[in-house]
Amino acid sequence: MVDPADRTPQSLFSAVRAEILETAAQMFEDRGYSDVAVNDGTMCSTEAVLRILDPSADEAERVGIQHVRDAAQRHAQQRLILVSKMGPTAFLASALQKHSQVGDNSVEVFTFAQLRQNITHHRSVPRHVVVAPQAVAEVLRSHGIDDPAALPKLLLTDPVARYYQWPPGTVVRIFRCDYGDNGLAKRFEALRYVCAS
Length: 197
Prior knowledge:
Number of strands: 9
Number of domains: 2
Strand order of the largest sheet: 1-2-3-4-5
CATH class of the largest domain: Alpha Beta
Oligomer: single chain
CATH architecture of the largest domain: 3-Layer(aba) Sandwich
């Protein structure tokens, strides 16, 4: 926590960075990444590298193409996750969208606000569970559906889908509770099909 007397930009950024690293550690664990290590605002695993850009250290508030190139040169075999105060530049956002449509999701960009708290732990976000690929046909049959693409969509841009980095074609169960007038909870299950658009 930040000392109220010390409200310099660097001390505030240190507090934000600590929150982001805590959420990122949970995200890495939820994604199944292994051998996670943290070093001065960078979190590395065998599968991915997360780097937090420091706006108080003359780094841009937005992630641009040059940030991606620099990080890609250092971490060529790993997924890049870049976190900045304001997100990607318009040019980078357009380029990332084009790459994601052809299945290349090797670079992800988050804002500070998106990773300061773990969205999957928020009380308003229902529990999401991936249906095992071998169980998809059985689940669909029990709901009278032949094709998973006939299910309602869960876009790749959905915050929970981004958090878990689910690939297109994944079938997800969402468990919701509804509290009626009598105060009793009713549990509902919804199925969603992860897709680009």
